[in-house]
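ugh finaly. both done.
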Amino acid sequence: MSLWRVLVVEDESFYFSALEKFLKKDFEVTMVASMKEGLSALSQSRYDVGLIDLKLPDGSGLDLIDKAQKLQPHLVTIAMTGHGSPQMALQAVQKGAFHYLTKPFSLEELKHLVLKALRHHHLEKENHWYQRELKHKYQFENIIGQSPAMMDVFKLIEKISQSDSTILIRGESGTGKELIARAIHANSDRVSKPLVTVNCGALPEELLESELFGHVRGAFTGANVTRQGRFEVADQGTIFLDEVGDMSPRLQVKLLRVLQEQKFEPVGMSQSVDVNVRIIAATHQNLEQAVEEKHFREDLYYRLNVIPIVIPPLRDRLGDIPLLLAYFLEKFNTEKKKNVSGFSKEVKEVLGHSHWPGNVRELENLIERLVILKGEGEIAAKDLPAKYFSSSVIQGKQMFFLPPEGLDLPSVIASVENELIEQALARTGGNKNKAAQMLKLKRTTLVEKLKRKKTQKAFF
């Protein structure tokens, strides 16, 4: 297999010889010392990575980076500077450089960046194939659902995909908000550009700021190299901000500026970076209540909520469950190399009328578990966890199913209580007063139940 090809444009003799000796151990290297020689090399041969000094004897490395992008669009460039300011290095990134290094730098640091650049190059090469597959995979008809509630969602998505308007997807956890975001991107004019996803609830504030907006070398302890943020990576494409309601007030201000001006400052940098990004946000929280309680900025809420999409919970589209059962059964039979033939009539009845607090994700996880454990044959009532025989609702009435082999009544009752408390807290955004009202309990009673269940590890 041929080596990765690296072009180095460096006029300082010390770095010229050091880079040549070090890089030739792992890569096929071409060394040149001027802008003219660099352009000549780029016009004659294809390279994977370009290491370009920003100060050259016959021109600016910034201009060379710009011209290199036009000559070889898939070339990944890394800027090197010992003379320029951080602003100059940032200009290189804005012109398309993958990263930059400030002299003096360690050779191992350089190798780490080159390897990262090559991974980026590899993803770029796969991108054409990926984009062809993406649009097919995330066509709306491939999102499982034919209930009236989901058809309304599909019609709305079809209308808005071609626009660049900001979208706020609302829905309980497990309803498929990310899948909807991917479908919107796949059917938009930005499909050939990146779709970048960030879970805003999964990282502490400091890490989330760096993840979203990037940082410059030396911005904080451990910032050994300049790092592009997810907004820069998503330039010309789409960024999906999941659980945006969990974002801290300080980061809400920075996000508001991106929405208003399409620019931001990386951590440790005073100069702004311009981007062209479509923002799709999602949350399971009640943002109106969060605004009222001063946890979420009102101006940011209205900027995000230009086009709202509400994904219905699975309990409001129970008619889709037969389709979902068939889809997940085929999926996991294939993935897990099993031969489960189907579901018994009683299982279909029970699952078709359960409450599903975890929504489609809960159903998917259940079917995966059942397929793995069953292996082959038909899934029968005895294969289901006991809780599904206690939480089914038919025409507004609570229905209880007794499995053929019987059940543990105390554990079923505890399971029902846990599930109803979880639903009440989810619907009220964790507000114990309102949850207690929904359950016709005193707040103190609900708090005591939660404490007891936490101790027994039955709820948390």
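ok and the 2nd:
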Amino acid sequence: MSSNENKFYRFDRILLFTLVVLGCSSGMVALVSTPVDIIKTPARLSFPEPLQKVKGYDTPTKSLSVTPTKQEVEDVATVENVVEDENVPLGSLLPCSCCKKTIRVPRNPYTRHQTAARALPNSFFINNDSDIRYGLGVNKLVEVTNGRGFRIDRLRHSKAMLLPEVRDLLIEMGNAYADALEGTDSEGTVFRVTSLTRTDEQQRKLARRNRNATRGESTHSYGASFDIAFMDRPNEKANCSRPTREIQKLLIKYQKAGRILIIPEGGCMHITLIR
């Protein structure tokens, strides 16, 4: 081979090598290079604008036309009634206790209660149901129902009746109690009367199961006494503080005025009218 041919061959090889190197270099630059707009981290995420702000777009103002079922309408009405009526049935909330454990009132001896019961104008000893019928017939006994400021409990060992003057006392005390709570969170609270007139037969049966019941002549058997055991709140906004304080003030006021005698018992306040 001549020297000229060798020189041309070496030139071709050098040119080819140079082209290969340039091509590889360009490919590497393309792979590792990243546009500025890609590596740039966005300052914050963007969220689509509400449809109300998009120009030319009117959002619908009417709800979908769906007819509710009869049961759904009744359920909604029930919920609305519950929300509107904050009061709850009396007795459905935990009552406030009215007894010697919660109220401090001086105790009058039971012998004084018995003497006061016998001295009342219409007083007579009630042995049995025949005496009850007699007392109602001659108006020496009158029936008692719920009144302002008080309610009659479900009676098991007594009857919802009293001497007329004792019934008047109960109504008067109920009104005084309601007046004391009027305009407060406890307005509507009532005291609960748990025992009224008992026949001697009822008293003897009760004495066998209740050690607090007297074995002698009970003032309940003269229609002269009633027991207050609880105060019932109208709603959960009323706590027991004010109702308890006001019933204590009421009892002490009537006791100091010589209107009533009181025996604080473990489960109630026993009250007897004084002539």
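summary for the 2nd one i guess: The first helix runs from residue 3 to 32.
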